[in-house]
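User: Just a sanity check before I run the rest of the batch. Below are the structure tokens for the first item. I only need the designed sequence back.
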């Protein structure tokens, strides 16, 4: 092997190693939202992760730990599907029967997708939230005016707007809300799924450009052209239809408590689909949510007897992998 080939090999290994770290970090920071079947990323997508996935960083203010911005709605679709494939999940967005968005779209050129964008509601890959999903998660199970506090300065860095100065900051520098979500207001606003009108789509969460005021409240909405990125609009990831396997012989229960009746004990390796995240608890030193699950095909109990697919019950999520 020549020196040039060795260098290329080491370079590929290095970038593969960095990507593996980013993916592992993303898995750890997905927050389960109680009362729903979805998770949200605890922070906005960073420039580092976006560049690791797409090979591009279109942001106007460059810093690997800043949220990515200057991404259009269509760029977001491209990113979500590519990330899903890289992580082994089924892509959510479909165009002309294809999940490979590059068949119909060239990202980062302020172009539009001229075909109908469909959503596979059963896919387990990444997408952006709807307004309803975003606002429910932003409340964090609390009753504050802003996501996590009644004081804006607790949850966002707010300064008088100066077009000559970057007001972005590294993610997760302020207090999270009750579900562990950072920067739901402040830093950059976030694309959501809902269309406003014509070529416009809603955005949620006030950005640094809003200054102090009512715009930081959870219910406040904005909108942006789908074909154009903005320096104060970024991405927060959502993942639903999550399937996991039991890591031990695990009790399926009637309710989300250790004292509730056992339906049966699932054998190690049984696949379940999460249909609702419940309360948070620590059991045997492991902290996790209780989850309402649907047993998938091929499941057996600890004695080797088949379990009817579609059976629903609660189990402790800390023993799923």
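Assistant: Here's the designed sequence for the first item:
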């Amino acid at each position: 092997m020549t020196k040039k080939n060795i260098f290329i090999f080491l370079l590929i290994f290095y970038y593969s190693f960095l990507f593996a770290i980013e993916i592992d970090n993303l898995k750890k920071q997905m927050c389960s939202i109680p009362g729903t079947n979805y998770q949200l990323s605890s922070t906005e997508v960073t420039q580092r992760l976006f560049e690791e996935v797409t090979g591009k960083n279109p942001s106007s203010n460059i810093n690997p730990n800043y949220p990515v911005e200057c991404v259009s709605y269509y760029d977001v679709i491209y990113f979500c599907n590519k990330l899903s494939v890289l992580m082994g999940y089924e892509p959510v967005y479909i165009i002309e029967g294809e999940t490979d968005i590059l068949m119909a779209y060239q990202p980062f050129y302020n172009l539009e997708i001229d075909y109908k964008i469909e959503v596979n509601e059963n896919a387990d890959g990444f997408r952006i939230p709807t307004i309803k999903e975003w606002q429910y998660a932003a409340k964090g199970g609390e009753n504050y005016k802003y996501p996590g506090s009644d004081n804006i300065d607790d949850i966002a860095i707010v300064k008088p707007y100066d077009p000559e100065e970057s007001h972005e900051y590294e993610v997760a520098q302020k207090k999270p809300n009750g579900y562990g979500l950072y920067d739901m207001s402040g830093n950059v606003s976030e694309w959501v799924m809902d269309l406003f009108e014509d070529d416009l789509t809603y955005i949620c969460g006030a950005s640094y450009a809003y200054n102090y005021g009512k715009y930081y409240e959870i219910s406040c909405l904005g909108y942006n052209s789908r074909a154009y990125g903005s320096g104060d609009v970024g991405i927060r990831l959502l993942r639903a239809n999550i399937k996991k396997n039991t890591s031990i012989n695990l009790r399926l229960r009637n309710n989300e408590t250790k004292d509730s009746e056992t339906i049966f004990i699932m054998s190690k390796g049984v696949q379940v689909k999460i249909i609702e995240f419940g309360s948070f608890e620590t059991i045997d030193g492991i902290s996790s949510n209780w989850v309402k699950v649907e047993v998938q095909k091929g499941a057996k109990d600890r004695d080797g007897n088949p379990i009817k697919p579609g059976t629903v019950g609660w189990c402790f999520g800390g023993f799923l992998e």
